[in-house]
């Protein structure tokens, strides 16, 4: 399993609400997808009760991440072309139009 600390990421937003995270992702990303709770990015499951927004920006992937006991963050992982391709081809993924 990949550890988040092993990835080249930047925190775009911290201590946010789910709505604030979704708004930021929609504002900064060229493409936005909604994935079911438990969807994995780099084998890291995304936690949530419904569909979770994930976006692409160039070759980066942008997503909401919950760190237990700390809260919600929006992270941007750079050089994520493989994950972006997997996201685009996912059956259980909904692309925002």
From TrEMBL:
<dbReference type="InterPro" id="IPR012031">
    <property type="entry name" value="MTH0776-like"/>
</dbReference>
<protein>
    <recommendedName>
        <fullName>DUF1894 domain-containing protein</fullName>
    </recommendedName>
</protein>
<dbReference type="Pfam" id="PF08979">
    <property type="entry name" value="DUF1894"/>
</dbReference>
